[in-house]
Amino acid sequence: MNGDPIASPLTLAVMGMLAQWPQSGYDLMKLFESSAIGNCSSSPGAVYPALKRLEEAGLIAGEVENEDTLRPRQVYHLTPEGDAALRDYLGRAITREDVTRSGGDVILRFVFAGHILGAEEAARILAEFADEIEAYLPELEAEYRGFPEDLPPFGRHGLEHSIQHYRWEVEWARRLAAELLAGKPRKRSRARDAHG
Amino acid sequence: MNGDPIASPLTLAVMGMLAQWPQSGYDLMKLFESSAIGNCSSSPGAVYPALKRLEEAGLIAGEVENEDTLRPRQVYHLTPEGDAALRDYLGRAITREDVTRSGGDVILRFVFAGHILGAEEAARILAEFADEIEAYLPELEAEYRGFPEDLPPFGRHGLEHSIQHYRWEVEWARRLAAELLAGKPRKRSRARDAHG
DNA sequence: AGCGTCATGTAATGTGTTACATGATTCG
DNA sequence: CGAATCATGTAACACATTACATGACGCT
Asked: If I label B85, which of A73, A147, B18, B58 is the partner at 20 to 30 A Cα–Cα?
Protein backbone atom coordinates (compact mmCIF):
# COMPACT_ATOMS: atom_id res chain seq x y z
CA MET A 1 0.00 0.00 0.00
CA ASN A 2 1.37 3.31 -1.05
CA GLY A 3 -1.01 5.55 0.79
CA ASP A 4 -2.09 6.17 -2.78
CA PRO A 5 -3.94 3.20 -4.23
CA ILE A 6 -4.04 4.84 -7.66
CA ALA A 7 -0.32 4.76 -8.16
CA SER A 8 0.48 3.31 -11.56
CA PRO A 9 -0.82 4.10 -15.05
CA LEU A 10 -2.38 0.65 -15.13
CA THR A 11 -4.32 1.31 -11.94
CA LEU A 12 -5.49 4.65 -13.25
CA ALA A 13 -6.55 3.09 -16.53
CA VAL A 14 -8.49 0.39 -14.73
CA MET A 15 -10.24 2.92 -12.51
CA GLY A 16 -11.04 5.19 -15.41
CA MET A 17 -12.41 2.41 -17.53
CA LEU A 18 -14.54 1.05 -14.71
CA ALA A 19 -15.85 4.57 -14.19
CA GLN A 20 -17.32 4.39 -17.70
CA TRP A 21 -19.11 1.09 -17.16
CA PRO A 22 -18.60 -2.10 -15.14
CA GLN A 23 -16.24 -4.57 -16.73
CA SER A 24 -14.48 -7.83 -16.02
CA GLY A 25 -10.76 -8.46 -15.88
CA TYR A 26 -10.95 -10.13 -19.23
CA ASP A 27 -12.73 -7.13 -20.73
CA LEU A 28 -9.94 -4.88 -19.50
CA MET A 29 -7.26 -7.19 -20.84
CA LYS A 30 -8.88 -7.18 -24.27
CA LEU A 31 -9.25 -3.42 -24.11
CA PHE A 32 -5.59 -2.80 -23.25
CA GLU A 33 -4.56 -5.27 -25.90
CA SER A 34 -6.58 -3.73 -28.69
CA SER A 35 -6.42 -0.08 -27.77
CA ALA A 36 -3.50 2.30 -27.45
CA ILE A 37 -5.01 4.10 -24.47
CA GLY A 38 -2.31 4.31 -21.87
CA ASN A 39 -0.10 1.66 -23.49
CA CYS A 40 -1.15 -0.54 -20.61
CA SER A 41 -0.05 -4.09 -20.18
CA SER A 42 -2.70 -6.55 -21.26
CA SER A 43 -1.25 -9.55 -19.46
CA PRO A 44 -3.35 -11.34 -16.86
CA GLY A 45 -0.43 -11.18 -14.46
CA ALA A 46 -0.81 -7.41 -14.42
CA VAL A 47 -4.56 -6.93 -14.67
CA TYR A 48 -5.88 -9.47 -12.19
CA PRO A 49 -3.52 -8.55 -9.35
CA ALA A 50 -4.34 -4.89 -9.95
CA LEU A 51 -8.05 -5.64 -9.68
CA LYS A 52 -7.47 -7.59 -6.50
CA ARG A 53 -5.46 -4.74 -4.99
CA LEU A 54 -8.13 -2.20 -5.84
CA GLU A 55 -10.81 -4.46 -4.43
CA GLU A 56 -8.86 -4.94 -1.21
CA ALA A 57 -8.47 -1.18 -1.00
CA GLY A 58 -12.24 -0.86 -1.25
CA LEU A 59 -12.13 1.19 -4.45
CA ILE A 60 -13.85 -1.35 -6.64
CA ALA A 61 -16.23 -4.24 -6.02
CA GLY A 62 -16.93 -7.29 -8.11
CA GLU A 63 -20.22 -8.96 -8.80
CA VAL A 64 -20.51 -12.40 -10.27
CA GLU A 65 -22.40 -12.51 -13.51
CA ASN A 66 -23.90 -15.77 -14.88
CA GLU A 67 -23.49 -17.26 -11.45
CA ASP A 68 -25.43 -20.40 -12.16
CA THR A 69 -23.81 -21.08 -15.53
CA LEU A 70 -20.43 -22.71 -15.83
CA ARG A 71 -18.73 -19.61 -17.17
CA PRO A 72 -19.15 -16.93 -14.53
CA ARG A 73 -17.43 -13.55 -14.81
CA GLN A 74 -16.46 -11.11 -12.13
CA VAL A 75 -17.76 -7.74 -13.23
CA TYR A 76 -16.18 -4.89 -11.31
CA HIS A 77 -17.56 -1.45 -10.66
CA LEU A 78 -16.35 1.57 -8.70
CA THR A 79 -17.47 1.85 -5.11
CA PRO A 80 -18.39 5.31 -3.82
CA GLU A 81 -14.94 5.39 -2.19
CA GLY A 82 -13.38 4.47 -5.51
CA ASP A 83 -15.28 7.18 -7.29
CA ALA A 84 -14.13 9.69 -4.69
CA ALA A 85 -10.53 8.49 -4.90
CA LEU A 86 -10.55 8.75 -8.69
CA ARG A 87 -12.03 12.25 -8.62
CA ASP A 88 -9.47 13.26 -6.03
CA TYR A 89 -6.62 11.87 -8.12
CA LEU A 90 -7.85 13.56 -11.28
CA GLY A 91 -8.28 16.84 -9.42
CA ARG A 92 -4.67 17.01 -8.28
CA ALA A 93 -2.32 19.54 -9.76
CA ILE A 94 0.12 18.46 -12.45
CA THR A 95 3.64 18.38 -11.06
CA ARG A 96 7.14 18.50 -12.44
CA GLU A 97 7.31 14.78 -11.79
CA ASP A 98 4.30 14.19 -13.99
CA VAL A 99 6.07 15.99 -16.81
CA THR A 100 9.49 14.49 -16.26
CA ARG A 101 8.93 10.81 -15.61
CA SER A 102 8.88 8.87 -18.83
CA GLY A 103 5.72 6.86 -18.33
CA GLY A 104 3.77 9.97 -17.41
CA ASP A 105 0.06 9.47 -17.26
CA VAL A 106 -0.96 13.08 -17.84
CA ILE A 107 -2.77 12.31 -21.07
CA LEU A 108 -4.69 9.52 -19.37
CA ARG A 109 -5.62 11.88 -16.58
CA PHE A 110 -6.75 14.43 -19.13
CA VAL A 111 -8.95 11.89 -20.88
CA PHE A 112 -10.61 10.59 -17.73
CA ALA A 113 -10.96 14.04 -16.26
CA GLY A 114 -12.79 15.04 -19.41
CA HIS A 115 -15.16 12.14 -19.02
CA ILE A 116 -15.77 12.41 -15.32
CA LEU A 117 -15.20 16.03 -14.35
CA GLY A 118 -16.00 17.84 -17.56
CA ALA A 119 -14.27 19.94 -20.18
CA GLU A 120 -13.15 22.73 -17.87
CA GLU A 121 -11.24 20.38 -15.59
CA ALA A 122 -9.72 18.67 -18.60
CA ALA A 123 -8.62 22.05 -19.93
CA ARG A 124 -7.18 22.87 -16.51
CA ILE A 125 -5.03 19.74 -16.63
CA LEU A 126 -3.77 20.70 -20.09
CA ALA A 127 -2.98 24.22 -18.90
CA GLU A 128 -1.10 22.98 -15.85
CA PHE A 129 0.72 20.48 -18.03
CA ALA A 130 1.83 23.28 -20.34
CA ASP A 131 2.77 25.48 -17.38
CA GLU A 132 4.92 22.79 -15.82
CA ILE A 133 6.67 22.13 -19.10
CA GLU A 134 7.35 25.81 -19.59
CA ALA A 135 8.84 25.95 -16.11
CA TYR A 136 11.01 22.97 -16.96
CA LEU A 137 12.12 24.03 -20.43
CA PRO A 138 14.59 26.75 -19.35
CA GLU A 139 16.55 24.16 -17.39
CA LEU A 140 16.73 21.89 -20.39
CA GLU A 141 17.75 24.81 -22.57
CA ALA A 142 20.45 25.77 -20.08
CA GLU A 143 21.73 22.22 -20.13
CA TYR A 144 21.68 22.36 -23.92
CA ARG A 145 23.65 25.58 -24.02
CA GLY A 146 26.09 24.25 -21.45
CA PHE A 147 26.74 21.06 -23.39
CA PRO A 148 30.49 20.64 -23.81
CA GLU A 149 31.72 21.70 -27.22
CA ASP A 150 34.42 19.07 -27.42
CA LEU A 151 32.08 16.10 -27.01
CA PRO A 152 30.47 14.41 -30.00
CA PRO A 153 27.16 16.16 -30.67
CA PHE A 154 24.80 13.21 -30.19
CA GLY A 155 24.10 13.95 -26.57
CA ARG A 156 23.16 17.41 -27.74
CA HIS A 157 20.86 15.88 -30.34
CA GLY A 158 19.15 13.92 -27.59
CA LEU A 159 18.64 17.08 -25.56
CA GLU A 160 17.36 18.87 -28.61
CA HIS A 161 14.84 16.09 -29.09
CA SER A 162 13.57 16.54 -25.56
CA ILE A 163 13.34 20.29 -25.88
CA GLN A 164 11.49 20.28 -29.18
CA HIS A 165 9.24 17.48 -28.02
CA TYR A 166 8.26 19.44 -24.93
CA ARG A 167 7.64 22.53 -27.02
CA TRP A 168 5.35 20.50 -29.22
CA GLU A 169 3.51 19.25 -26.14
CA VAL A 170 2.99 22.81 -24.93
CA GLU A 171 1.54 23.88 -28.27
CA TRP A 172 -0.72 20.86 -28.41
CA ALA A 173 -1.95 21.34 -24.85
CA ARG A 174 -2.54 25.08 -25.24
CA ARG A 175 -4.39 24.67 -28.51
CA LEU A 176 -6.64 21.89 -27.26
CA ALA A 177 -7.30 23.66 -23.97
CA ALA A 178 -8.37 26.76 -25.88
CA GLU A 179 -10.63 24.69 -28.11
CA LEU A 180 -12.23 22.98 -25.15
CA LEU A 181 -12.90 26.25 -23.39
CA ALA A 182 -14.22 27.85 -26.58
CA GLY A 183 -16.82 25.11 -26.95
CA LYS A 184 -14.79 22.95 -29.33
CA PRO A 185 -15.48 23.62 -32.98
CA ARG A 186 -14.93 20.78 -35.52
CA LYS A 187 -14.88 17.66 -33.39
CA ARG A 188 -13.58 15.37 -36.10
CA SER A 189 -10.88 15.22 -38.74
CA ARG A 190 -8.28 16.88 -36.55
CA ALA A 191 -5.92 13.91 -36.73
CA ARG A 192 -5.54 14.65 -40.42
CA ASP A 193 -4.12 18.10 -39.87
CA ALA A 194 -0.53 19.07 -40.09
CA HIS A 195 0.86 19.26 -36.63
CA GLY A 196 2.90 22.46 -36.69
CA MET B 1 19.18 -12.72 -15.64
CA ASN B 2 17.20 -12.02 -18.74
CA GLY B 3 19.48 -13.52 -21.31
CA ASP B 4 19.85 -9.85 -22.13
CA PRO B 5 21.91 -8.03 -19.52
CA ILE B 6 21.20 -4.66 -21.15
CA ALA B 7 17.52 -4.78 -20.42
CA SER B 8 16.42 -1.50 -18.90
CA PRO B 9 17.00 2.11 -19.91
CA LEU B 10 19.06 2.53 -16.75
CA THR B 11 21.36 -0.34 -17.72
CA LEU B 12 21.75 1.06 -21.21
CA ALA B 13 22.51 4.50 -19.83
CA VAL B 14 25.13 3.08 -17.47
CA MET B 15 26.79 1.12 -20.24
CA GLY B 16 26.74 4.06 -22.61
CA MET B 17 28.19 6.42 -20.07
CA LEU B 18 30.92 4.00 -19.09
CA ALA B 19 31.72 3.61 -22.77
CA GLN B 20 32.62 7.31 -22.81
CA TRP B 21 34.97 7.11 -19.85
CA PRO B 22 35.30 5.12 -16.62
CA GLN B 23 33.15 6.38 -13.79
CA SER B 24 32.05 5.45 -10.28
CA GLY B 25 28.55 4.74 -9.08
CA TYR B 26 28.49 8.11 -7.43
CA ASP B 27 29.51 9.81 -10.67
CA LEU B 28 26.63 8.13 -12.46
CA MET B 29 24.17 9.08 -9.74
CA LYS B 30 25.22 12.73 -9.98
CA LEU B 31 25.01 12.55 -13.75
CA PHE B 32 21.49 11.11 -13.80
CA GLU B 33 20.45 13.64 -11.17
CA SER B 34 21.74 16.66 -13.02
CA SER B 35 21.14 15.65 -16.60
CA ALA B 36 17.98 14.84 -18.48
CA ILE B 37 19.64 12.08 -20.51
CA GLY B 38 17.36 9.09 -20.33
CA ASN B 39 15.38 10.40 -17.36
CA CYS B 40 17.21 7.79 -15.35
CA SER B 41 16.76 7.27 -11.66
CA SER B 42 19.56 8.77 -9.63
CA SER B 43 18.90 6.82 -6.47
CA PRO B 44 21.62 4.61 -5.06
CA GLY B 45 19.11 1.79 -4.78
CA ALA B 46 18.90 1.75 -8.55
CA VAL B 47 22.44 2.56 -9.62
CA TYR B 48 24.52 0.37 -7.34
CA PRO B 49 22.52 -2.82 -7.89
CA ALA B 50 22.64 -2.16 -11.62
CA LEU B 51 26.41 -1.85 -11.48
CA LYS B 52 26.65 -5.05 -9.49
CA ARG B 53 24.48 -6.91 -11.99
CA LEU B 54 26.56 -5.70 -14.91
CA GLU B 55 29.76 -6.64 -13.11
CA GLU B 56 28.43 -10.11 -12.35
CA ALA B 57 27.47 -10.45 -16.01
CA GLY B 58 31.06 -9.62 -16.91
CA LEU B 59 30.14 -6.52 -18.92
CA ILE B 60 31.89 -4.03 -16.66
CA ALA B 61 34.76 -4.23 -14.20
CA GLY B 62 35.59 -2.00 -11.27
CA GLU B 63 38.96 -0.77 -10.17
CA VAL B 64 39.55 0.77 -6.77
CA GLU B 65 40.93 4.26 -6.92
CA ASN B 66 42.67 5.87 -3.93
CA GLU B 67 43.02 2.42 -2.44
CA ASP B 68 45.29 3.48 0.39
CA THR B 69 43.28 6.52 1.40
CA LEU B 70 40.17 6.25 3.52
CA ARG B 71 37.83 7.34 0.76
CA PRO B 72 38.24 4.82 -2.03
CA ARG B 73 36.02 4.78 -5.08
CA GLN B 74 35.11 1.97 -7.40
CA VAL B 75 35.67 3.20 -10.93
CA TYR B 76 33.98 1.00 -13.49
CA HIS B 77 34.88 0.53 -17.12
CA LEU B 78 33.54 -1.66 -19.92
CA THR B 79 35.15 -5.04 -20.41
CA PRO B 80 35.70 -6.25 -23.96
CA GLU B 81 32.58 -8.40 -23.51
CA GLY B 82 30.67 -5.36 -22.32
CA ASP B 83 31.83 -3.34 -25.29
CA ALA B 84 30.73 -6.14 -27.61
CA ALA B 85 27.36 -6.48 -25.85
CA LEU B 86 26.75 -2.75 -26.09
CA ARG B 87 27.65 -2.65 -29.78
CA ASP B 88 25.41 -5.64 -30.37
CA TYR B 89 22.54 -4.00 -28.53
CA LEU B 90 22.96 -0.72 -30.39
CA GLY B 91 23.15 -2.55 -33.70
CA ARG B 92 19.80 -4.26 -33.30
CA ALA B 93 16.86 -3.24 -35.42
CA ILE B 94 14.24 -0.95 -33.93
CA THR B 95 11.05 -2.88 -33.29
CA ARG B 96 7.41 -2.06 -32.84
CA GLU B 97 7.93 -2.65 -29.14
CA ASP B 98 10.61 0.02 -29.03
CA VAL B 99 8.15 2.48 -30.52
CA THR B 100 5.13 1.45 -28.50
CA ARG B 101 6.36 1.01 -24.97
CA SER B 102 6.24 4.21 -23.05
CA GLY B 103 9.72 4.24 -21.57
CA GLY B 104 11.24 3.57 -24.96
CA ASP B 105 14.97 4.03 -25.06
CA VAL B 106 15.29 4.66 -28.79
CA ILE B 107 16.68 8.16 -28.31
CA LEU B 108 19.25 6.86 -25.86
CA ARG B 109 20.23 4.19 -28.34
CA PHE B 110 20.52 6.82 -31.04
CA VAL B 111 22.79 8.96 -28.88
CA PHE B 112 25.11 6.15 -27.87
CA ALA B 113 25.13 4.67 -31.35
CA GLY B 114 26.25 8.05 -32.61
CA HIS B 115 29.09 8.11 -30.11
CA ILE B 116 30.22 4.53 -30.50
CA LEU B 117 29.26 3.40 -33.98
CA GLY B 118 29.23 6.66 -35.90
CA ALA B 119 26.80 8.93 -37.69
CA GLU B 120 25.64 6.40 -40.26
CA GLU B 121 24.52 3.91 -37.65
CA ALA B 122 22.81 6.68 -35.71
CA ALA B 123 21.00 7.72 -38.86
CA ARG B 124 20.02 4.12 -39.45
CA ILE B 125 18.40 3.98 -36.02
CA LEU B 126 16.48 7.15 -36.75
CA ALA B 127 15.34 5.78 -40.10
CA GLU B 128 14.18 2.50 -38.58
CA PHE B 129 12.48 4.43 -35.82
CA ALA B 130 10.56 6.47 -38.38
CA ASP B 131 9.78 3.35 -40.41
CA GLU B 132 8.36 1.53 -37.43
CA ILE B 133 6.23 4.51 -36.49
CA GLU B 134 4.91 4.80 -40.01
CA ALA B 135 4.00 1.12 -39.92
CA TYR B 136 2.21 1.69 -36.62
CA LEU B 137 0.41 4.91 -37.48
CA PRO B 138 -2.24 3.40 -39.78
CA GLU B 139 -3.42 1.21 -36.89
CA LEU B 140 -3.72 4.20 -34.63
CA GLU B 141 -5.53 6.11 -37.35
CA ALA B 142 -7.91 3.20 -37.87
CA GLU B 143 -8.58 3.12 -34.15
CA TYR B 144 -9.18 6.86 -34.28
CA ARG B 145 -11.63 6.57 -37.15
CA GLY B 146 -13.39 3.69 -35.46
CA PHE B 147 -13.81 5.57 -32.22
CA PRO B 148 -17.48 5.39 -31.20
CA GLU B 149 -19.38 8.53 -32.05
CA ASP B 150 -21.66 8.35 -29.04
CA LEU B 151 -18.83 8.40 -26.48
CA PRO B 152 -17.44 11.63 -25.03
CA PRO B 153 -14.61 12.79 -27.28
CA PHE B 154 -11.78 12.77 -24.74
CA GLY B 155 -10.64 9.28 -25.59
CA ARG B 156 -10.45 10.51 -29.16
CA HIS B 157 -8.39 13.48 -28.02
CA GLY B 158 -5.98 11.08 -26.35
CA LEU B 159 -5.64 9.09 -29.56
CA GLU B 160 -5.17 12.27 -31.52
CA HIS B 161 -2.35 13.22 -29.18
CA SER B 162 -0.61 9.91 -29.83
CA ILE B 163 -1.05 10.19 -33.58
CA GLN B 164 0.22 13.73 -33.86
CA HIS B 165 3.07 13.01 -31.47
CA TYR B 166 4.19 10.06 -33.55
CA ARG B 167 3.97 12.16 -36.70
CA TRP B 168 6.18 14.73 -35.06
CA GLU B 169 8.66 12.02 -34.13
CA VAL B 170 8.79 10.82 -37.73
CA GLU B 171 9.49 14.33 -39.00
CA TRP B 172 12.15 14.90 -36.39
CA ALA B 173 13.84 11.57 -37.09
CA ARG B 174 13.76 11.96 -40.86
CA ARG B 175 15.09 15.49 -40.75
CA LEU B 176 17.93 14.68 -38.37
CA ALA B 177 18.82 11.49 -40.24
CA ALA B 178 19.07 13.46 -43.46
CA GLU B 179 21.24 16.06 -41.77
CA LEU B 180 23.54 13.44 -40.35
CA LEU B 181 23.97 11.74 -43.70
CA ALA B 182 24.49 15.05 -45.46
CA GLY B 183 27.39 15.87 -43.17
CA LYS B 184 25.41 17.98 -40.71
CA PRO B 185 25.41 21.68 -41.48
CA ARG B 186 24.94 24.17 -38.57
CA LYS B 187 25.65 22.08 -35.49
CA ARG B 188 24.30 24.59 -33.02
CA SER B 189 21.27 26.78 -32.42
CA ARG B 190 18.85 24.15 -33.65
CA ALA B 191 16.90 24.01 -30.38
CA ARG B 192 15.75 27.54 -31.11
CA ASP B 193 13.93 26.61 -34.28
CA ALA B 194 10.25 26.16 -34.72
CA HIS B 195 9.44 22.50 -34.75
CA GLY B 196 7.12 22.22 -37.72
C1' DA C 1 31.16 21.03 16.74
C1' DG C 2 28.10 20.58 13.07
C1' DC C 3 26.63 20.55 8.38
C1' DG C 4 27.07 19.40 3.58
C1' DT C 5 29.16 16.59 0.34
C1' DC C 6 31.64 12.32 -1.10
C1' DA C 7 30.87 7.47 -1.50
C1' DT C 8 29.07 3.22 -0.73
C1' DG C 9 25.65 0.18 0.02
C1' DT C 10 21.23 -2.78 2.07
C1' DA C 11 16.20 -3.88 3.12
C1' DA C 12 11.37 -3.65 2.46
C1' DT C 13 8.05 -2.98 -0.61
C1' DG C 14 5.32 -2.68 -4.81
C1' DT C 15 4.58 -3.91 -9.23
C1' DG C 16 5.23 -5.41 -14.04
C1' DT C 17 6.82 -9.54 -17.07
C1' DT C 18 6.90 -14.07 -18.42
C1' DA C 19 5.34 -18.28 -18.23
C1' DC C 20 2.42 -21.61 -16.66
C1' DA C 21 -2.15 -23.68 -15.37
C1' DT C 22 -7.09 -24.72 -15.64
C1' DG C 23 -11.45 -25.52 -17.66
C1' DA C 24 -15.66 -24.22 -20.47
C1' DT C 25 -17.55 -22.74 -24.81
C1' DT C 26 -18.04 -21.86 -29.68
C1' DC C 27 -17.10 -22.53 -34.41
C1' DG C 28 -15.78 -25.09 -38.35
C1' DC D 1 -13.14 -33.44 -32.69
C1' DG D 2 -9.77 -29.83 -32.57
C1' DA D 3 -8.67 -25.05 -32.39
C1' DA D 4 -9.60 -20.58 -30.95
C1' DT D 5 -11.65 -17.87 -27.62
C1' DC D 6 -13.70 -16.90 -23.02
C1' DA D 7 -12.27 -16.33 -18.33
C1' DT D 8 -9.73 -16.79 -14.43
C1' DG D 9 -5.83 -16.98 -11.98
C1' DT D 10 -0.73 -18.29 -9.79
C1' DA D 11 4.47 -18.47 -9.39
C1' DA D 12 9.11 -17.05 -10.28
C1' DC D 13 11.66 -13.37 -11.42
C1' DA D 14 13.51 -8.75 -12.32
C1' DC D 15 13.56 -4.21 -11.28
C1' DA D 16 12.65 0.54 -9.39
C1' DT D 17 11.41 3.31 -5.25
C1' DT D 18 11.91 4.60 -0.76
C1' DA D 19 14.04 4.71 3.18
C1' DC D 20 17.65 3.59 5.98
C1' DA D 21 22.61 3.00 7.28
C1' DT D 22 27.58 3.94 7.54
C1' DG D 23 31.61 6.69 7.65
C1' DA D 24 35.26 10.07 6.05
C1' DC D 25 36.31 14.64 4.39
C1' DG D 26 36.05 19.87 4.13
C1' DC D 27 34.45 24.10 5.58
C1' DT D 28 32.85 27.46 8.91
From this structure: A147
